[in-house]
Design brief:
The protein is of the alpha+beta class. About 20% of the residues lie in helices and about 40% in strands. The two termini are about 15 Å apart.
Amino acid sequence: MNRLKSLSLDRKPNTATYSESGRGGSLIPGLRMFTAQPSADSAGECEMFYSRRSTGPFYRWRTTAPERWEVTRVNGGDLLAAGLCPLSWKNLPQTLQLRVVNHYEE
């Protein structure tokens, strides 16, 4: 069972703050979320997002089934060449927010 109770946006853009049962608030410093620039031929594709913490590796998040997220480490150089758009934490699906927090806690 997921211990996560709530998620909210910290004062720093795209930085997650969350509270857990029995613990005070925690912070994931330097967490940034992105989406790929939309293209004309991307209609109907699964939802896909990217994350990066500070200067760490990029991760791609995509849906594999309703409310199920698959995460894969990806080459940052390829992503930067393709162009990523910053995305506010509050614009992420809630199920992805939970999955991202769990990923970076591990």
